[in-house]
Write a structure and sequence with these properties.
Layout lengths: L1 E6 L13 H18 L4 H6 L2 E12 L8 E12 L2 E10 L4 E13 L10 H6 L22 E2 L3 E2 L13 H12 L5 E8 L8 E8 L5 E6 L5 E9 L7
Antiparallel strand pairs: 1-3, 2-5, 2-8, 3-4, 4-5, 6-9, 7-9, 8-11, 9-10, 10-11
Helix pairs in contact: 1-4
Length: 242
């Protein structure tokens, strides 16, 4: 497993002084980026070879949110390739190696010239050494959307929402979804399903609902009524922060 060590910063915490869910996602995303850069398969390699990895889905399970100043270890491992699809796990641990949070992700490799799927080349297959996937309860990629919902405030996409691929970063979709709820609660599990890229100047409208199990589902649509992202948040029955 590829790992790096860090310390929870004040800027990454919420009003309780614990790591925000969105910041946890950023840690995981940064970890995979660090690994790609360190093995020579980072942004420069992808740009030269006209390919890009795009996120298809997130599943993050949180055991405990670390507090401000706490030292953590963040790790990632790729565990499978299927055609143009890659599968990757993540974990955040405390200094004693106990799991704070862990995740499963599904990625798609696209040709930036054609926009079509592309298979990983020999250098990618050699560089991303596959390891056994971590032990967790794996959820389906697709999120069921309830029939009834109410509409939240539209969000205009600005530069702050974009990443180096010039579209809305997967973490920004989650931030928009969380902000649309206009309420705070501890999240035990996040799931996100990405369907369509969103560019600068577009408008996303959140449609909010709850499942019969009490999970919050936020559907983000563009002005053409296309579903761009679906986010599901499961409330923690008891707060295990700190």
């Amino acid at each position: 497993m590829y790992t790096f060590q860090s310390r929870i910063r004040y800027s990454e915490t919420d009003k309780t002084g614990h790591l925000k869910l969105e910041s946890l996602l950023d840690y995981f995303q940064d970890c995979s980026t660090f690994q790609s850069e360190d093995i020579g398969l980072g942004l420069g390699y992808c740009k030269d070879h006209h390919v890009v990895w795009v996120m298809s889905s997130w599943q993050i399970i949180v055991e405990r949110y670390p507090a401000m100043g706490e030292r953590v270890i963040v790790g990632t491992l790729p565990y499978e390739f299927k055609g143009f699809v890659g599968y990757r796990n993540f974990v955040m641990m405390d200094e004693q190696g106990r799991n704070l949070a862990y995740a499963n992700t599904i990625w798609s490799l696209l040709d930036t010239d054609t926009g079509k799927p592309a298979k990983p080349d020999a250098q990618m297959l050699q560089g991303y050494v596959l390891e056994p996937r971590i032990d967790m309860e794996y959820a389906p990629r697709r999120i069921k959307i309830p029939e009834e919902s109410f509409t939240g405030e539209p969000v205009h996409i600005k530069d702050i929402h974009l990443d180096t691929n010039q579209h809305v970063n997967n973490g920004q979709f989650v931030r928009i979804a969380i902000d649309s709820l206009e309420r705070d609660f501890p999240v035990a599990q996040l799931r996100a399903e990405y369907k369509k890229q969103v560019l600068l100047g577009e408008v996303l409208t959140p449609h909010l609902s709850r499942t019969c199990e009490g999970r919050h589902v936020i559907v983000l649509e563009n002005s053409g009524k296309d579903i761009c992202c679906v986010v599901e948040l499961e409330e923690r029955k008891e707060d295990r922060k700190g």
